[in-house]
TrEMBL record:
Subcellular location: Cell membrane
Gene Ontology annotations for the cellular component aspect, listed alphabetically: plasma membrane
Key words, A-Z: Cell membrane, Membrane, Transmembrane, Transmembrane helix
Main location group: membrane
Top-level taxon in the UniProt lineage: Bacteria
Pfam families linked to this entry: ABC2_membrane_2 (PF12679)
TM segment ranges: 12-35, 55-73, 94-118, 138-156, 163-181, 220-238
One MF term in the entry's GO annotations: ABC-type transporter activity
Descriptive protein name: Gliding motility-associated ABC transporter permease subunit GldF
Membrane topology category: Multi-pass membrane protein
Family annotation (InterPro entries): ABC-2_transporter_component, Motility-assoc_ABC_perm_GldF
Length: 246
């Protein structure tokens, strides 16, 4: 698994695409948080990072599929997936190596955003009034969200040898899981009880809960379960494609 992990990291940073994806993520965050007046942290009148945690999931909808779209698609396109399957590695080791490698890249893209916290702390009249617990909870939620999107991206990449198709499938699926259930719950036909359960089925409900700084075991179980489900589906997809090609 470690070999797969290292290969994933090296493959990403040996291409210009990797650097461009992370730079665009940071530039987009910087523009929205410090330049554009409607979302600027400097115009809110109080020190917090709420705009970052509201904006980052939407950017992740594009960034993470861009990171994961080549994980398995390129392996199928170049024919190295068949070779990889003959190595003394289990299917779970292959999937988990790809998952942890991709997730580390997501975390690397997240680390520079701590500069925003430092900037807000320096600009704040009373730095001690910053809700550090809430910020830590929000970063935890963003990490869990990134892990879910990574798992969805891997599953999408396992479906096709075309990286662009994998990207589009991942963007659509991530959006449905993040915002689709919440949007569906607002249909009048589901009001009166069903709307609440529909919201609970979506990522946005649990991300918002964790981002408030309250780490609830139910939210953690939800994220871990969804990650496990998508990785299991990825494993099944890889096995099916190799059996069909064999």
């Amino acid at each position: 698994m470690l070999a797969i992990f290292k290969k994933e990291i090296n493959q990403f940073f040996n291409s210009v695409t990797g650097y461009v994806a992370i730079i665009l993520f940071l530039v987009a965050n910087g523009l929205f948080l410090f330049v554009f007046p409607d979302t600027s942290l400097l115009d809110t009148g109080y020190a917090n990072l709420d705009p970052l945690f509201d904006l980052a999931p939407l950017i992740y909808l594009l960034l993470i599929p861009a990171i994961t779209m080549r994980c398995f698609a390129d392996e199928f396109k170049t024919g190295t997936m068949e070779l990889l399957s003959t190595k003394p590695l289990s299917w779970w080791q292959i999937v988990m190596g790809k998952f942890w490698g991709s997730l580390l890249i997501v975390v690397i893209s997240l680390i520079p955003t701590f500069v925003y916290y430092i900037a807000i702390r320096q600009l704040s009249i009373a730095p001690q009034q910053l809700d550090n617990g809430g910020i830590l909870g929000a970063y935890t939620g963003l990490f869990l969200l990134g892990a879910v999107f990574t798992a969805i991206g891997l599953w999408s990449s396992s479906l096709t040898s075309n990286a662009m198709i994998a990207f589009l499938i991942a963007v659509f699926t991530c959006y449905i899981f993040y915002n689709g259930f919440d949007a569906l719950s607002k249909i009048p036909a589901f009001s009166g009880g069903a709307d609440y359960y529909l919201q609970m089925a979506g990522i946005k409900f649990h991300y918002a809960s964790v981002s408030r700084g309250v780490i609830d075991s139910r939210d953690i179980i939800y994220f871990i379960s969804l990650i496990g489900l998508m990785l299991y589906l990825t494993k099944l997809s890889l096995q099916r494609k190799l059996w069909q090609n064999g």
